Amino acid sequence: MPQSGDIRVESRDHDEPPLVSIIIPVRNEGPNLRISLRVLAALVEVPYEVLLVYDFPEDSSVPVVDELKKDYPQFKLVLNVKGIGVSNALLTGIDNAKSNYIAIMLADDTGPMTSLGDMIALMEDGCEFVSSTRYAHGGYRLGGSRLGYLLSITANKLFHWLAGCVLTDATTGIKMFRRDIFKDFPFEARPVGWAVVFEMAMKAQTMGLTLGEVPIISIDRLYGGKSTFKLFPWVLEYSRWFIWGLLNLRKNRDSQDRNVRIRIPER
How far are the Cα atoms of 64, 72, 76 from residue 197, in angstroms, in the given order? Predict the structure, then answer.
């Protein structure tokens, strides 16, 4: 199996069709984008595009991306016309993507960007849905609120044990998937936090897709800014999908493919 760095090109011709479309939902992430987009450009060694999906023209992300586009034409601003929230930003991004491989990244977390090559390698090896993990295979999480961390790791471990979810970090926002499978996906999660990726992780398993998992180092809001975390609506929406998963994953447990292809990045 190829290792990290095997998927690369000698030169980056931005007129080539992209191998991967990277969707980054943004809301006033200007300061973070000045750093994270440059990091992303330095790391990705295949033809790619970055779709930065924003909700309103006054977003501080817009002038920063306009400035960076002079040097990085693969960065593209896309206005979210479907309604606010990550789920609608994701739908807008999928509609505008040119590649069949779609990656979801965060504007304020550069750590997972180092794992993009390994996620692409799993897709090239036949996976249809790849999730990152902060809680297994050497992955870990730094920063962020202590409460958010405890809720996240507890929920994922309980979900793994009780529901039989084969992914060890279903709630992380860092995912990669095939556009031809998910372009007509029945998204049902309310636009609360990143609940939509939790929904996708569960339904990818119930759909019988070939799954992959890559450990990441997640550095939550390394460069500051205001988090959108709101305890009550987040807990309510994630609990709704937790219950959905308990019912549906357990019900189909015997018929599901229990194997997940794991790819450990080279250190």
Answer: 27, 28, 22
